[in-house]
C-alpha cells in the first residue's frame, strides 16, 4: 500500500469525525486525493474541509446528496436555455442527463477528464466556487453537442459521455466556451432556481 493511500484513508476518517452531517461518497476521496497531490496530509485534510463546506453548497455530500441532485435539475434548465435542440433530443431519447453529470459535480470532473484538464478546472473551482461547475458542464456539452445530436439511442449517448477524456483534451478551448460563449451567466439565476427546487422538494413535489 502506498503512503498516499494511507494518508487518504486518514483524511477521510478525520473528515468523518469532523463533519458528522456528511456521509461518505465517492466524491470525497477524489477531492482528498487531489489535495494530496500537492499538500501534506494535514493541509490536504483542510483542503477537503474547505472544498466540501465552503466551495460546494449545503448538503452536497449528505446521505441523499440533495444539494448535488438539485443542482442537476438546475443544470438541465440551463441546458434547455443554452442548447434547446440538445435538450429536446435528450428528452426524446429519454436520457436522464444527471446519470452522467452528477459525478461531474461531486468530483469536480476528476472522474471524467484527463489530469491536465481537470486540474485546471479545479484551480478555477478553488477561486470561484461551485458556479464554475455549471459553466464547465455546459461547455463540455457544447463541445460534444453535435456528437450527441447524432446519437439515436441511450447507448450512443452513454458511449459519448463515457469517453470525454479522449474528446475534451484542450483546456483553453473548453475555458473559452465556458467563459465567453455561454454568457450571460448570472450567479443569481443559478441560486434562484436552486432555491426554487429546494422549496419544491420540501413541499414534496419531487423526491430525491
Automatic annotation (TrEMBL):
Residues 1-129 form the Rab-GAP TBC domain. InterPro entries: Rab-GAP-TBC_dom (IPR000195), Rab-GAP_TBC_sf (IPR035969), Rab_GAP_TBC_domain (IPR050302). Pfam families: RabGAP-TBC (PF00566). Gene3D superfamilies: putative rabgap domain of human tbc1 domain family member 14 like domains, Ypt/Rab-GAP domain of gyp1p, domain 3. PROSITE patterns: TBC_RABGAP (PS50086). GO terms for molecular function: GTPase activator activity; small GTPase binding. This is Rab-GAP TBC domain-containing protein. The lineage of its organism: Eukaryota, Metazoa, Ecdysozoa, Nematoda, Chromadorea.
Amino acid at each position: 500500500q502506498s503512503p498516499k493511500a494511507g494518508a487518504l484513508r486518514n483524511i477521510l476518517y478525520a473528515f468523518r469525525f469532523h463533519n458528522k452531517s456528511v456521509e461518505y461518497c465517492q466524491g470525497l476521496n477524489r477531492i482528498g486525493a487531489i489535495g494530496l497531490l500537492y499538500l501534506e496530509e494535514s493541509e490536504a485534510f483542510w483542503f477537503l474541509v474547505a472544498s466540501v463546506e465552503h466551495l460546494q453548497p449545503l448538503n452536497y455530500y449528505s446521505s441523499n446528496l440533495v444539494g448535488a441532485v438539485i443542482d442537476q435539475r438546475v443544470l438541465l434548465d440551463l441546458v434547455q436555455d443554452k442548447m434547446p435542440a440538445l435538450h429536446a433530443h435528450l428528452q426524446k431519447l429519454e436520457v436522464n442527463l444527471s446519470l452522467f453529470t452528477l459525478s461531474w459535480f461531486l468530483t469536480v470532473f476528476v472522474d471524467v477528464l484527463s489530469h491536465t484538464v481537470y486540474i485546471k478546472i479545479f484551480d478555477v473551482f478553488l477561486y470561484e466556487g461551485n458556479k464554475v461547475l455549471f459553466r464547465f458542464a455546459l461547455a463540455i456539452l457544447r463541445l460534444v453537442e453535435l456528437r450527441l445530436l447524432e446519437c439515436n439511442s441511450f447507448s450512443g449517448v452513454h458511449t459519448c459521455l463515457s469517453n470525454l477524456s479522449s474528446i475534451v483534451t484542450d483546456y483553453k478551448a473548453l475555458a473559452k466556451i465556458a467563459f465567453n460563449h455561454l454568457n450571460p451567466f448570472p450567479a443569481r439565476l443559478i441560486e434562484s432556481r436552486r432555491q426554487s427546487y429546494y422549496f419544491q422538494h420540501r413541499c414534496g413535489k419531487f423526491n430525491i
